[in-house]
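Hello,

Our lab assistant flagged a job as stuck in the queue for most of the afternoon. It eventually completed. Since we weren't sure the result was trustworthy after the delay, we are filing this so someone can double-check. Below is the sequence as submitted and the structure that was eventually returned. Let us know if re-running is recommended.
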Amino acid sequence: MKRIALIEDDKLLLNRMAMFLAGQQGMSCVLKAETLGQFFENLPDEPGIDLLLIDIELSDEVNTIAHLQKVRKLLPDSKILVITGHNHPDYILQALQKGANGFYLKGSGLAKLLEAIETVCAGGAYLAPEAAAHIIPFFNRQPDSSRPFHAEPAGQGAPEKMDLSRREKEVAQRLIEGQSYQEIASDLLVSLNTVRHYVKCLYKKFEVSNKIQLSKKLRPYM
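-- returned structure --
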């Protein structure tokens, strides 16, 4: 039986994922939390957790990448699968460097989530195809692959032309058409927080601070 813990600040999505996991053969959701504080408070002295699913941004102020090392110390024998709407190489590599075993992109579907869980629990490393598409070109650009990796902060030195994932394009297209975040979430069958994650990622990539600026920069990509 795989004992799984879940941290997600979208309460609806948290409960939906917990119910889904509880309904899978050989899986049990033993702990769920909306915040890191709630997770730390409810974590037993002997957790016995096989896998932790953790959202990368639990609020505008808390980025869980910065806390992954603390989580790893508390759960030295557990696998950690990051669930997120981000696929920028900076986020991916920082998470992997600080103890994550895999990267699942929100909106990829429940079948992919199960695939990610099985892969990570079996000792493998899971990277969503959309995320891999962003990280491989990063390594290809490295002048000396023998040097230790140092990620540039997202948003600095933005390229003149950049690749957008399928999901980023879907969100971007709807933003340009004037849809609200809620309308986009309904169209794409994802949570409102997932849409916000993608929009934040687009803002960061294009170095803008509002929807009007973003729309102007996105048009050449549509």
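-- support follow-up --
The delay was a queue issue, not a problem with the job. The result is valid. The longest strand covers residues 27-33. The beta strands are 2-7, 27-33, 51-55, 79-84, 102-105, 126-127.
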